[in-house]
Write a structure and sequence with these properties.
The protein is an alpha+beta fold. The protein has a domain of 142 residues: VirB8 protein (Nuclear Transport Factor 2, Chain: A, Roll), CATH 3.10.450.230. Helix content is 37%, strand content 22%. It is built from 5 helices and 6 strands, in the order H-H-H-H-E-H-E-E-E-E-E. Strands 1, 2, 3, 4, 5 and 6 form a 6-stranded antiparallel β-sheet that branches. Helix 3 packs antiparallel against helix 4. The longest helix has 37 residues. 16% of the residues are buried.
Length: 223
């Protein structure tokens, strides 16, 4: 009789051990579920444009070429007034606010007010574009200067054109020194994780690009 009691006791002990083990597994599963739920759903990785030779970098590092591309793209959008600068300029500032620091947005809004007071916006169109042979690949160290892990200085050499109706009223070749900072606070609105912090110093006029040299075809003689 005692043998049966011992067997029952052993089985009950085994059942308790299994229950404890199941409870521990459930606890581990809950902890893993909480960790998975708390993990970021998106992770932005900056890769160089040319991956033929491979790339190894820390995930939080932003390569200079990505900073340059971001700066050129956002700055062009800010200065793209396709119909009427009086409406297009403030619309662009508002649309791109997620890519601007608060101080830069305030500076641009102040610039809009000054231009509007001076009648420099109504019925004007404006565009900027990169000068030939003045892009990032021509002189990377000049185009992007790393000032820290989260700060960069970008020099954009651009042509600026403004039209009043069909008449061109402005054409300038300018170097824009722009400050760029890391601002990875809202990936839904700003997937780049970067923001323009306006100018590092006053934009400077530069010499226009040299026209391409035209070569006349060699005359071939024959008998």
């Amino acid at each position: 009789m005692s043998r049966f009691k011992n067997e029952v006791t052993r089985l009950e002990s085994h059942v308790k051990t299994l229950r404890v083990g199941c409870g521990m597994l459930l606890g581990v599963a809950l902890l893993m579920g909480l960790g998975w739920w708390d993990s970021p759903r998106d992770l932005t990785i900056h890769n160089p444009p040319d991956l033929r030779s491979g790339s190894t970098r820390k995930w939080w590092e932003v390569p200079p070429e990505s900073v340059y591309t971001f700066s050129l793209y956002i700055f062009q959008q800010l200065n793209r007034w396709p119909i009427d600068g009086e409406k297009d300029y403030p619309r662009a500032i508002h649309k791109l606010s997620a890519y601007l620091t608060p101080s830069c947005q305030a500076e641009l809004e102040s610039d809009f007010q000054k231009r509007q007071t001076a009648s420099e916006l109504r019925n004007r169109t404006r565009s900027v574009f990169e000068l030939p042979e003045r892009g990032y690949g021509e002189d990377p160290e000049l185009r992007v200067k790393v000032q820290g892990r989260d700060r960069w200085l970008v020099n954009l050499d651009l042509a600026t054109e403004e039209f009043y109706g069909s008449e061109r009223v402005k054409q300038a070749f300018v170097r824009y020194p722009l400050k760029v900072v890391r601002l990875d606070v809202d990936p839904e609105q700003n997937p780049f994780g970067l923001a323009l912090d306006c100018y590092d110093s006053s934009p400077q006029r530069i010499a226009p690009p040299a026209p391409p040299i035209s070569r006349s075809p060699h005359k071939q003689g024959g008998q």
